[in-house]
Write a structure and sequence with these properties.
The structure is a single chain. The chain contains 11 helices and 12 strands. The chain has a domain of 161 residues: Lambda Exonuclease, Chain A, CATH 3.90.320. It has 307 residues and is of the alpha+beta class.
Amino acid sequence: MTEQEYRSHPALSRSELWWFHRSPEYFKYRKEHPTEPTAALLFGQVAHKLMLEPDDFDTDFAVAPAVDKRTKAGKELWEAFVAEADDKTVVDAATYEQAMAMVSAARLNPLVNVLLKGRHEEPFFWTDPDTGVQCKCRLDSWYRDENGVPVIVDYKTAMDASYRSFLKDVTNYGYYLQAAMYSEGLIQNDMCPRLIKGKPKRRWKRDPDTGKRKYWTEYPEKIVMGGTEGEVIHPRFIFIVQEKTEPYSVNIFEMDMDFITAGYDLFREYIGTYVSCESLDVWPGYLGVVNEPNILTLPSWMGRGDE
């Protein structure tokens, strides 16, 4: 399935559900008024394609020659190239070269190559059992670890890949909702093993070279795929985050279950809101159904400094 075919499928995606963090009104407007990708989003799409599906890059994208679009001749050359590109997304040479340099830098990291060894850009569709809503997700990459547990790997580009900065991105852009919804896609498609008996054990040891703690989970031997017995073993979710400026540094994060659980809470809240709004055909904005002012309170971190 191509990306265009996936995007045109009517099932709800994570990015669409995230619009509810602003308001149902905003969700409805965005659904009815699709927008062209921003320069930042387009760059991310180019980098993703080169990282995950480089052999198919020319199927979806056309790299334009370097022209000066401020001149008449440059504009004409650009317009002619766009016309000949047909349905392909046109990107300028500078964007392509920068994305290529990023991917080359990332691939020098052996852990990146290990994490991206699985299936790429695989779509999953399912019916949410609680609401009957059709849902979808498209995983950048996923594979099974030594216990047979799915490991979902998501590639992100960022201006700052440090822990503190990416933590803000996780909350600001709803990446924890993404982790929950992608995990649900695998679970509902019976891609996760089940633990029949016994309890998993959390292990750790300290790396002798770096001094950092390394954690892993050991499971009892009684793990099976398929069937309805036993507890589902939840997928793992890992982010590869790469900076868009030289030296194109890479950071890697595995999201813990507390964060993913918070994403599940958000998923249930937003999909419930969608069902309610859809059934009533009422899509309130920031003031809600009651249409009353929101109370702006002094945040605790500001304080008044009173003794």
